[in-house]
What does this fold into?
Amino acid sequence: MRTSPHRLGSVARIEFVRMEITYLPEKQDFIDAQLAHAWRKYSPGAKKTQRILEPVLGLGLLWLAYHLASSGANGAVVFVEAILGLYVLLASSVISPFFIQRAYDRRRPVTLSSVTWTVDAESLRCSKPGSGRSELQWSVIRGFLDRPATLLLYTAPGVFLYFPKRVLSEAQQGELLGLLQGNDVPPTYPR
It folds into this structure.
């Protein structure tokens, strides 16, 4: 953004200069975006709490299954308790990463190519060698989430674009957030 030398009263007029962002997508970018989307409804504190409580609850359920088995309880109840304990124990550390890796493998092209985003006051344009170009007006963006590793732009409740923060400078992050706010895009995910 640049401030115009012409001042209107006490408020400076701000003009946005076109910005180009070019990068080679990485697997971690995809994972960060998927995790940010999965945790869109919760605060970062809730994620920390889950990471602490999940192993405790999983081990507690496994201990309960063991206790029920040693006391002669119904085998089906013991089996369900043991499976539930294993699931709770492994959900975040094994099961979720497996499904994210699987989704990445399905969407990843055979050869990775760079992505170029051209951002201006009217629209976002994406070009990728071999797959064409697309353009989105700011009015299509229904919400955004600013997370530590990524910036998600939602076009529908489950459909989003993402900008990895590793490729954005502080100035570019500020300009993108300013454009989103200037176009009345709410800082939340659409429902």
Summary: The two ends are 31 Å apart (CA to CA). Residues 117 and 126 are 5 Å apart (CA to CA). The chain has four helices and nine strands.
